[in-house]
Amino acid sequence: DKYEAELRGVIDDLDDRLDQLEADAKDAGAEAKERLRARIADLKERRAALSDRLGKARSAAADAWKDIKSG
User: Fold this and answer.
1) Nearest partner of 46 among 10, 19, 1, judged by Cα
2) What is the pLDDT of residues 10-19, one digit of tens each?
3) Helices then strands, each counted (H, E), the chain
4) Which of 33, 44, 49, 58 could cross-link to 28 by cystine, CB 3.0-4.6 Å?
5) What's the DSSP call for residue 28?
């Protein structure tokens, strides 16, 4: 499904960005590390929300398929 693929792509991009920010935070000074941690927390919340939407989309698609099969 196109919607699922788009969500999966956005989640994958967020995962890549989170990995980069976490690596940057390890080498950052105290102030920068604090800002990066806040950004990381925000992105993790967004990723969780998108992951939830993806799960719901998959569930809806499975339910629709069951309805089609049962006639």
Assistant:
1) 10
2) 999 999 999 9
3) 2, 0
4) 33
5) S
